[in-house]
Amino acid sequence: MRADFRGLTPEALAAMANWGLVKRAQREPAPELLLEEGGLRALFADGNRCFFPDAQPATQGHCSCAAAGWCRHLIGALLACAGSEPKPQPAEFVAVDMGRVEKLLGKRLWTKALAEKARGLSAEVLGPPWQVRLPGCTVRFLLGSDVDYGKCDCQLKGPCLHLALAAWAFNQQAGQPGRVLWQGSSQPTALDQTELWLEQLLEAGVAGSAALWEVWGSRVRAEIFGCSWLRVLVEEILQLGQAYAQAASHYSSGRWLYCLLSLALRLRDGSSYLLGRDVAWEQELEHSRLFALGCRRRAQDVQLFWADESGQVLVQLLPAGSESVPALGRLSEAAGSQVVSRGLVRRADGSLRFRRECNRHSLTRLGLDWRDLPAPLIWPGREAWARRCNERPSRLLEAPLLARDLWVVPLSGVQTGFYDPGSQRLVARIDDLHRGQLELRRTHQRECPGALDALAWALPQAVWLTGFVRLEGGIPRLEPVAIATNEQLVVLDLYQGAEPFDWPLALESSGRDGLSEMLQEALSLCQQAAQMGLSQLVPSFQRRRQELAERLREGSMLNLSRALASDWDFRGAAVRCFLATERLNG
User: Fold this and answer.
1) SS3 assignment, position 468
2) Three-state SS at 450
């Protein structure tokens, strides 16, 4: 029997076809398999026949039934092949055959792939099972390094140039997970109008952002068209400016500084992969299977988290206070379900929306055993997570995605926790399956008044958690979103009816030393400067800056002290503060 057929798992077949066909084929009697001259034939009890030609991938098989493309007979025959003999043992690293990739793509697509790589690109190799995350899409290798079984989730049917980019990244990593970065050889693209707008924005501050946009908006929009990462940052800058003008609680001076610095660094570098020129602004996916990971209510919106089959987390943004999801129904049901969709649109920032035709989406309950969720979602343990964080670039240069660091964490135990009435926060320590610990923290929010009650009630019974993991003061801390027990799924922000909790009361220590306090003060100073505008800084602010620079010098942080001294370069000082705080807190 063919070795490639023996290695096809139900998950791989579902990725090539769909889970409905796989489930149906698994329920029906296995066919009789015959090796003939020229290929493999499968004979079914209902009279249908399948044939798979030699030296051709499974996608070239055909069936005598009336179905077009994949059918339950083809899937059933491949399942029978996989179960007829022991599966081949994992071998050493085998590189992707680039000659085969070139033949699959043809001259036109191969030339485009070479040009795309030459312009510069970043990719992340994950696995096994192996997959390569490119800007805007993910390529999965369903059968080792066999390129005939590579599948991209872009909207193009058949081989695409992403297959070549993924193969190059996979070969460069030699079978090891990690990040690949190709520097562009082309000259940086001039974005003069955007740079001038940013300069004036730094001078005027957030209060003057609306007036500046009226003058510069049309020119900036025209210039950044086709640069997806710049568009994401500019859109957030505009939203933050509106929130500040309305005195909205969700305005953040930290996000304002982040957007300005990230935009400045990308404009200065000019590389295609940092501008987002190789990322489609919107991408329609013809067939997707998504798993809900819970949701989060915020003052400005509701975030519903979905994981696709590659393990990438997507976010559906709904208006604040929403209780229903367009085309899917009630929010409380969608937040704990899985959906098969034939009408999904994904944006560059990781947000998504469903087409409003309800007959294009099938919603079913999500099982409580999350071991079948995509492997890249599952918490790998503290050491593996720390290595992955060290390999990543700064957040200032990473793709500005909405859902960053959302994990599914399997638990082995829960330690005693406490409630801090001052910060209105529940704190506990949890044990993962890798003999490590995480500190769980969740703060009260008025948008979801029952979340802490639900957390205190469900945590002792928790088997799985979903939440955001961040490093703070050298400690990995998890902000929970949803809890799975052996009996039910509890989405914290949507839960109602839990009894008030009775945890021990204690005041939480800050856990910061003098170094981290000064770094945070320096970052806050830069945030205030960016918010007020460099031309609006008063003498008292300048005195505070000089005093902080002197304290940093006494603390032996000489580079940062010089950056904040008398004739300071704001951008350079702010980037130094941001990177130093990021290295400390992740």
Assistant:
1) strand
2) coil
Q: In terms of domains, do 308 and 436 share one?
A: yes
* Listed residues 509, 539, 569: the one ending a domain: 509
* Residues 271, 156: Cα–Cα separation, whole Å: 26
Could you tell me the pTM of the whole model?
0.79
Domain assignment of residue 461, yes or no? yes
- Closest by CA to 322, choosing from 308, 302, 340, 307, is 302
Element (H, E) at 167: helix 161-173
Q: In this structure, are 412 and 437 located in the same domain?
A: yes
* 89 part of a folded domain: no
- How many domains is the chain partitioned into structurally? 5
310: left (phi over 0), alpha (psi -120 to 50) or beta: alpha
Instruction: For CA atoms 379, 385, 388, 394, give the dihedral sign.
Output: positive
Q: Give the length of the chain.
A: 586
- Are residues 80 and 52 located together in one domain of the fold? yes
Q: CA-CA distance, 61 to 53, in Å (whole number)?
A: 7
Q: How far apart are CA 156 and CA 285, in angstroms?
A: 9
Judgement on whether residues 371 and 469 belong to the same structural domain of the protein: yes
Distance between CA atoms of residues 225 and 206, nearest Å? 23
pLDDT exceeds cutoff 80 at 514: no
Residue 531's pLDDT is what?
A: 95
- The answer to whether position 279 is within a domain reads no
Region 102-124 average pLDDT: 85
Q: For 338-387, how does the pLDDT look when each residue is reduced to its tens digit (9 = 90+)?
A: 888 888 889 999 999 888 776 678 888 887 778 778 888 999 998 888 88
Tell which residue, 124, 137, 105, 110, has the closest CA to residue 170. Answer: 124
* DSSP string over 190-247: P-HHHHHHHHHHHHH-GGGHHHHHHHHHHHHHHHHTT-HHHHHHHHHHHHHHHHHHTT
Q: Which of 114, 82, 103, 67 is nearest to 7 (CA)?
A: 82
Among the three residues 224, 240, 269, which one is the final residue of a domain in this structure? 269
Q: Helical H runs in 375-450?
A: 382-391
Residue 253: pLDDT band with limits 50, 70, 90: very high
pLDDT in tens, 151-194: 888 767 778 888 999 999 998 888 788 888 887 655 556 788 99
